[in-house]
Write a structure and sequence with these properties.
The complex is a heterodimer of chains A (461) and B (525). With 461 residues, chain A is an alpha/beta fold. Chain A contains 21 helices and 12 strands. The longest helix of chain A is centred in the N-terminal third of the chain and has 21 residues. Chain A starts with a helix and ends with a strand. In chain B, strands 12-15-18-11-19 form a 5-stranded parallel β-sheet. Chain B has 24 helices and 19 strands. Chain B is of the alpha/beta class. The chains are: A alpha/beta (461), B alpha/beta (525). Chains A and B meet through helix 20, helix 21 and strand 11 of A and helix 9, strand 19, helix 21 and helix 23 of B.
Chain lengths: 461, 525
């Protein structure tokens, strides 16, 4: 009997949590305070305006009152349940542990699908939306590797790097979380409809915004902090100097997450942000398998202190709740705050020096297959003088191989390629323009190159 | 007394003869005109009256009736002034009866009695010859235009008095007071083979030659292929890469106009009233480059009374649409039918007419709003912006474009140490050869060039060997081609093979042709 009563209460709490979290005009800090003050969502619902006014401004109280008058708690709650949407609040079970440690953690999260188990390492893969073929290639490889090595991929389900890495991870049978800047029932961008459906089935789609919220620019920075918050490690593939990706990186550092970067070329504006992060001491991804090992390692070391860390965190939060918001929370003692550490010691963000043997052992422990030395980095594939360029190990004629060498992951104009050929060619007579064009089209036919535009080609990843 | 004078009217680019009947009878003084007249023909009454007065001829205070027959067809234009004036003179018995017999008159009168340029002299004179008219009198400015047609004596007059003098004498026998104009059309067209030496259009066209284009090998090649097979061409590239420069030079690598083609072109120009004074024939390939704000009617042809539009003025030549995405969507879409049928039918209140529009479409556009896509280091457009920009050009138009080429920005090196590129003359020679091959191939069929090969006829004209077939099959899959794109590649490959003088299409021809296809990734499928 008592059990059912408790169940009932829980259900009602959820119902009213749904009401409170759907009100858009309130900060996370205020939500926490209101909840603390009244001691439950139902209590908040039935509290009078005066009680609300102790936390909220007069205008907010007005707004909340109006909102409440229109809101049918029972109906709305049934509706979101029917749509398969769950609401996770900070104080309820099921709320991701990792998020609890970040400053200004979202109070409520709407969820479709299933969150990853807590004992699973997670990595956020972020980067440019209009990425190059290089970025696309690396994102695909990285997503695939992470998926295969049992590391959950967290990302924003955006065009470009985000979506590609998630797609690849799902493809490899891995686990993915997509964090949206819109309501959890809104697919943005629409091109990623397929990915969205797959995420709902195979992983999870998450958002701190109530259902039906359209994707607005101001929604994305808070979305980004959830992306980095959910991850143990953040990897950046291609970012311009001024980009949303770098904002996410800032947040990740604030939250004490490890930041890794896939390096690009110094001449490439799309990789400027990445390269700059390297100079500031971010970890560098050189080998994907090695990187996956490092993620496991970071997670293991974190897990050892996990429980304690969360507990101290929670205690501190509760005791500091009279402060205005969660913003000036102390850092999690156990997570390494990269920024601080970098300033203090001048070392790299990621601990790369740790023995690779140990890591290898760990990987073996996990029962993952470690292929001796898989060539994953594109640099290796494009290495000079390698005969087997094609994935299928097809032998290319010397001319075709030469043209392939002249190609790049970044689109190159035909003229540039021909110039390149003239320099590198070992033939007595360099290829004529028309021969070069024929070779290029042959490479396209062999699926080794892509004609990006009528006069630009790039390698196919 | 009643008089009958022959004149002509236009219908599209052809003409029909009009009989101007003038009757002067006793009754209340007046001047009536009938026969489905448009306002400018009706105004002829005032012009003719004043012109005659100023020439010293007083209109009789009697009842003048003018009928233009056939009376049920709409008459327009100002060229009836002269025949009406001559009709009045004959009805007034100022000139001997029968003097104007079998002579066609055409021309607009000024108030001082001077004759002004008329529209469409060439088609009218042509029709007159067919109908057995032996002489015609036209304004001197247009005399050369009519003189191209053999089998008729074309006389040019300056004013109404000259015409009157001529007719007075004509009554007494053969008159020679008005000069007969004649043009040896053969002289305008040099003997084939020697055509490359000192061609007129090289001197006249402001010295446009392909050797002035710095670098841009791919674009030159694409232009050559397009010219050889009469394919439509699209050039993309950043601003200042030389898209317009190349387009302007394409007429120069097309084979010179033949007499027959020239007559077609001249007819259109003449109907549009754009012939230069004293010009006999248009001998240069037309090159029309309308601004992108052009209206649909101006591009296709139209207005209340149909007039040829840009596409007809570009007949047998090049229509160059710069900044393609900036054109009004409606204007571009209206190009679909003329591109397919090589002629355009226009229906208006004033009647239905058909104008020829067999032109080569050359378009140029930037690849994105900023112009630098896909150079990620310079282009700051988002993918959506690029797609949106591309999307302004409708699919059906792109479907009719066989060749697509991208120009890259010219670097300082190729600008400075300029090796003079190949001249237009030598390119034209190759194009000429390829065209000859096509002429033989398509003899007796509806097609003229490889660009005209229909999808159904592709199998027949572009047969592939086993190896080529296999190659095409792989291309089809890896380039994600559509059936239409497949046919386009075959057509272009046919032209490339023709340029090389190869009888069969080879793998390298297919490869090159597929390079120039409008690619799927770029245009969206």
């Amino acid at each position: 009997m008592g059990g059912t009563l408790k169940e009932d209460w829980k259900e009602r709490e959820k119902m009213y949590a749904c009401w409170l979290c759907s009100f858009p005009g309130m900060g996370n800090g205020q939500l926490h305070q209101l909840w603390e003050l009244c001691g439950g969502f139902e209590a908040v619902y039935f509290a009078d305006r005066q009680t609300w006014g102790r936390v909220l401004s007069a205008r907010q109280v007005e707004g909340l009152a109006g909102f409440t008058a229109r809101w049918r708690p029972q109906e709305e709650y049934c509706r979101i349940r029917k749509e398969g949407i769950q609401l996770l609040t900070f104080w309820q079970e099921g709320y991701p542990e990792r998020l609890k440690t970040i400053p200004d953690a979202p109070f409520g999260l709407f969820l479709r699908g299933k969150l990853p188990k807590e004992d699973m390492p997670t990595a956020a893969v972020i980067g440019a939306r209009d990425c190059s073929e290089y970025g696309r290639h690396v994102a695909r490889l990285l997503g695939e590797t992470l998926g295969r090595r049992g590391i959950a991929v967290v990302s924003g389900m955006a065009r470009g790097i985000d979506g590609i890495s998630q797609e690849a991870a799902l493809e490899a049978g891995g686990y993915c979380v997509g964090v949206l800047g819109s309501g959890v029932d809104v697919c943005y961008p629409v091109q990623n409809r397929g990915l969205y459906e797959r995420l709902v089935k195979q992983g999870a789609v998450l958002s701190s915004y109530p259902g039906g919220t359209p994707a607005r620019p101001q929604n994305f920075p808070p979305r980004n902090r959830i992306v980095s918050g959910l991850a143990d490690v953040v990897v950046v593939i291609e970012a311009r100097v001024k980009s949303g990706t770098l904002i996410t990186v800032d947040m990740a550092l604030e939250q004490g997450r490890e930041v890794y970067v896939v390096p690009g070329r110094v001449t490439d504006r799309l990789s400027d942000g990445c390269n700059r992060l390297i100079r500031q001491g971010a970890g560098v991804v050189l080998d994907l398998e090695e990187f996956a090992g490092e993620v496991w390692e970071i997670w293991e070391s974190k897990r050892n202190n996990h429980e304690a860390g969360i507990l101290t965190q929670r205690r501190r939060y509760v005791s500091g709740k009279t402060g205005d918001s969660g913003k000036n929370l102390p850092e999690n003692g156990n997570a390494i705050c990269a920024k601080e550490r970098q300033e203090a010691e001048g070392t790299t963000v990621a601990e790369k020096g740790q023995g690779t043997e140990a890591e290898g052992a760990k990987v073996a422990e996990k029962g993952q297959e470690t292929e001796a030395k898989q060539t994953v980095t594109p640099e290796k594939r494009g290495g000079r003088g390698q005969a087997s360029l094609g994935e299928a190990g097809r032998e290319l004629s010397p001319d075709l191989a030469a043209v392939y060498q002249a190609l790049d992951f970044y689109p190159r104009s035909t003229e540039k390629i021909i110039q390149e050929l003239a320099f590198a060619s070992e033939r007595a007579q360099p290829l004529s323009d028309r021969q070069a064009v024929t070779c290029l089209m042959q490479l396209c036919m062999e699926d080794l190159a892509i004609q990006v535009s009528p006069g630009h080609f790039c390698r196919k990843g | 007394m009643l008089s009958r004078i022959i004149s002509g009217a236009l219908e599209g680019v052809s003409a029909y003869l009009v009989c101007v009947e003038v009757d002067i009878a006793s009754g209340l003084p007046g001047f009536n005109m009938v026969g489905s007249l448009s306002p400018e023909v009706r105004e002829s009454r005032e012009r003719v009256g004043v012109a005659l007065k100023n020439a010293g001829i007083q209109m009789p205070p009697r009842r003048v009736t003018v009928n233009l027959s056939p009376a049920d067809r709409k008459k327009e234009g100002t060229a009836y002034d002269l025949p009406i004036a001559v009709g009045i003179l004959e009805a007034m018995e100022m000139i001997p009866p029968g003097a104007a017999e079998n002579i066609l008159f055409l021309g607009e009168l000024g108030l001082d009695g001077g004759l002004k340029k008329a529209r469409g002299v060439l088609p009218v004179v042509r029709e007159a010859v067919n109908r057995g008219v032996s002489q015609c009198v036209v304004p001197r400015a247009n005399a050369m235009e009519g003189a191209v047609i053999p089998g008729i004596r074309v006389r040019g007059a300056e004013n109404i008095l000259e015409v009157m003098g001529f007719l007075m004498e004509q009554g007494r026998g053969e008159s020679e007071t008005l000069p007969v104009f004649s043009v040896d059309a053969g002289n305008l067209f040099q003997v084939p083979g020697k055509e490359d030496l000192g061609r007129e259009d090289q001197k006249e066209g402001g010295g446009l030659d392909f050797s002035q284009v710095a670098g841009q090998e791919q674009a030159r090649r694409a232009a050559e292929i397009a010219a050889a097979g009469f394919h439509n061409l699209l050039m993309t590239g950043p601003p200042g890469a030389g898209k317009s420069m190349i387009a302007q030079r394409i007429p120069g690598i097309l084979p010179p106009l033949t007499l027959e083609e020239s007559l077609e072109v001249t007819s259109v120009v003449s109907v549009a009233g754009l012939m230069k004074e004293g010009e006999a024939l248009v001998t240069k390939r037309p090159f029309c480059a309308p601004h992108h704000t052009i209206s649909q009617a101006a591009l296709i042809g139209g207005s209340l009374v149909p007039r040829p539009g840009m596409i007809s003025l570009a007949h047998r030549g090049v229509l160059f649409l710069d900044e393609l995405p900036e054109f009004q969507r409606a204007s571009l879409d209206a190009l679909r039918q003329p591109l397919e049928e090589r002629q355009v039918s226009i229906s208006r209140i004033g009647g239905n007419v058909t104008y020829p529009s067999d032109f080569m479409l050359v378009c140029a556009m930037n690849p994105c709003p900023c112009g630098y896509y896909p150079d990620a280091n310079r282009c700051r457009c988002t993918e959506t912006q690029v797609r949106k920009y591309m999307g302004r050009v409708s699919g059906p138009i792109l479907d009719r474009i066989d060749l697509c080429v991208e120009l890259s920005p010219v670097d300082y090196g190729s600008l400075k140490d300029r090796k003079a590129g190949e001249s237009s003359a030598s390119v034209r020679q190759r194009v000429g050869k390829a065209r000859k091959v096509q002429k033989d191939r398509f003899a007796g069929t509806g097609c003229r060039f490889n660009g005209d090969i229909s999808a159904a006829a592709v199998e027949k004209y572009c047969p592939l060997g086993v190896e080529e077939e296999a190659c095409m099959e792989r291309l089809y899959a890896s380039l994600r081609l559509s059936a239409r794109a497949y046919h386009r590649i075959l057509r272009v490959a046919r032209t490339i093979a023709d340029l090389e003088g190869a009888e069969r299409i080879g793998v390298e021809h297919l490869m090159e042709a597929s390079y120039y296809r409008p690619s799927v990734e770029y245009w969206g499928s």
